[in-house]
Amino acid sequence: MPASKGFAAQNPQTPLAPYNFSRREPGPTEILVDVLYCGVCHSDLHMARNEWGQAVYPLVPGHEIVGRVTATGKEVKNFKTGDVAAIGVIVDSCRHCAPCKRGEEHFCDEGATLTYAAKDRVDGSITMGGYSANYVVDERFAHTVPAHLDLAAVAPLLCAGITTYSPLRHWKVGPGKKVGIVGLGGLGHMGLKFAHAFGAHAVQLTTSLKKKEDALKLGADEVVVSTDANAMKAHAKSFDFILDTASAPHDIDPYLQLLKQDGTLTLVGLPEKPPAVNVFSLITRRASVAGSMIGGMPETQQMLDYCGQKNITADVEVIPIQKINEAFERMLKQDVKYRFVIDMSSLK
Ligand SMILES: [Zn+2]
Ligand SMILES: [Zn+2]
After folding, report:
1. How far, in Å, is the centroid of ligand 1 from the Cα of 285?
2. How far is the CA of 99 from the centre of ligand 2 (A)?
3. What does DSSP assign to residue 119?
4. pLDDT, tens digit, for every residue of 256-287?
5. How far apart are CA 323 and CA 257, in angstroms?
6. What confidence score (pLDDT) does residue 273 get?
7. Distance 121 CA to ligand 2 centre (A)
8. Ligand 1 centroid vs 338 CA: distance in angstroms?
9. pLDDT tens-digit readout, 94-150
10. Nearest Cα to Cα of residue 84 among 27, 7, 31, 163
11. Rounded distance from Cα 139 to ligand 2 centre (Å)
């Protein structure tokens, strides 16, 4: 069995620390991937500290994985040894329900298998994430990566990228549409890049004027400070679509006021408390509040290919794994532009 090591949380209180374990031999349709880079997602921190109550310890986080294939099962078609492969938030699903057959494995009726802290469908073990030396995954849940992209900056596409790409595509964001992005963190900065690339009029909605210059550089056509009542009023009933990426608890009503008739506000951040919805703000414009998470395997590949064509990657700060606990603390203070990515060669 391939030996592995990584950084794990042993309980909700203690910092992540080195941990040795092993992976299974890749099955006929599976590949073994040496992890090169792994992005640091907010979920990793929530899960390591059991803030959603679903943690299983020891817990090796990480679901924004880019690596190199080092072994393939004999039926593998899409990868060969030496190829770059990417792995995101899910690594398996039932594969026979209607959503799975449609290629929307993330909506699997039986529940998709998460990349870490979930029960593995093949061997019953607990999945261990990408803050580690390697990963074994079925090729259906791995993606090819456009060769010319910076691999460290590709890693966050596997969660932050697809989480924003998928709803912008689903709600048909493009030329002639005015689109708001709430929040300018790991998710928000990708949402802004995609909204801009899709040709929409992209507006960054932010609580802090300090982010204005950065938002303009990332592709915003306008920046609106959401705490400025006059500025918000000037944009009332003018947005086709708003992507809300904020994960801290916040009032969504000011954003609903910005929607046009039949506009949609889609939530992709995960605040701990459910947001209150003012029904008057919905009925007066037939507005919708919606939610979205990641994307299916075909759409994730489509997103990576699109990023290859348009040269889109995340803005990242690369760290050695030994700095992960410090990175968690800085992430809580939003002190990162815009995603930490672990250089896994630091583990060796
Ligand atoms: Zn994530
Ligand atoms: Zn399914």
Report:
1. 33
2. 6
3. B
4. 999 999 999 999 998 878 899 999 999 999 99
5. 42
6. 83
7. 12
8. 13
9. 999 999 999 999 999 999 999 999 999 999 999 999 999 999 999 999 999 998 999
10. 31
11. 16
Strand 288-291 relative to strand 259-267, pairing = parallel
Ligand 1 centre to CA of 157 (Å) is 10
Dist. CA 160 → ligand 1 center (Å): 6
Q: What is the pLDDT of residue 1?
A: 87
Task: Report residue 80 as tokens.
Answer: 């060969």
- Considering only CA atoms, which of 103, 106, 69 is closest in space to residue 85? 69
Q: The tokens 């030329």 sit on which residue?
A: 175
Instruction: Give me the amino acid identity at 185.
Output: G
Distance of CA 293 from the midpoint of ligand 1 (Å):
10
Whether the CB-CB separation of 304 and 143 falls below 8 Å is answered with yes
Q: Which residue reads 């990480």 in tokens?
A: 62
The pTM (predicted TM-score) of the whole model is: 0.97
- Do 65 and 6 meet the contact criterion of CB atoms below 8 Å apart? no
For residue 224, what pLDDT is reported? Answer: 97
Strand 339-343 to 65-72 pairing: unpaired
Contacts of 59 (CB under 8 A, 6+ apart): 8, 9, 47, 48, 116, 117, 129
| pLDDT tens-place string over residues 19-37 | 999 999 999 999 999 999 9
Q: Determine the distance separating the centroid of ligand 2 and the alpha carbon of 149, expressed in angstroms.
A: 32
